[in-house]
Design a protein that fits this description.
- By secondary structure, the chain is mainly alpha-helical.
- It has one domain.
- It is 66% helix and 0% strand.
- It is built from 14 helices and no strands.
- The mean pLDDT is 91.
Length: 303
Amino acid sequence: MWGLEYFSFRDLWSPLFMIFMMAIIVLYTFVIGPWRHRFAGSAPVSVSRQLAFWLSIVLLYLTQGGPLSLMGHLMFTFHMTNMAIAYILVPPMLIYGIPDWAWRRLFRANFWRGKVFRILMNPIICLGLFTLLFSFYHMPDNHDWIMTHYTVHRLYYALLLISSIMMWWHVYCPVPEWRRMSHMLTLGYIFMGGLLLTPACAMIIFASSPLFAVYNDPQVWVKAMGYCMSGDPSELLTKFEGPMFFNMMSGKDDQQLGGIVMKLLQEFVNAAALYTVFMQWYRRERAQEEDQTPTPIAKPLID
């Protein structure tokens, strides 16, 4: 399917990265299980939180080292699907999956309370940083250069993940006393996040011609393939004419579909976030109203 049969197990599954991600899942399982009593204020972690964390790690693995990662080098549609999953869907699941007592322990050092970190975690800076990194990456020349320089590629993807977690932190802040925005401001924050990514998606969707050489120029493509396959990637050109062999669409159609998929997945996740935050706000207001409602005094049966 999609030509994956032409690649080795190592190319498709990145065994070292798989072991690393499995180690994270094992560590998490021990922390919330047998080791939980070592953490002050710890409490049992719900099944929904555990499932969210495990699924976020699996999705991150698939998009950054599994078959989806390789497919993202064959078709632009899969590349943008990976972007949406790894940096729009995974971060809120990851944040939700880690309990508040674990976050408190993780950031208990005085370093995290410093002025620099507090400025860096300002909601406006977090939102602007991710938007800037994402938009900069998808400028055609920047994208092609990063995709063909492997060390920069790894570092940039790690920076994208960190910045996306920082951005989503202010939406699903797991530690109540660390929340820096009201529910009303959070709703505006989510809306603004979707708005700021629109220009980059629009540029991709409405371009009159293919923009990215990685998916249209065989020489650039084969150089980018060295990131996710073993051996000499130039041998691919002796078997295939280029990425076009693996693509069922024209370069322009593939690019447009990729931009549409990215925008739709982002809007879907944003809609879920808006609903969640609004319901939290609604329940909080209802609870406050009920607490303030005076209890009626029963009249005595006999005066």
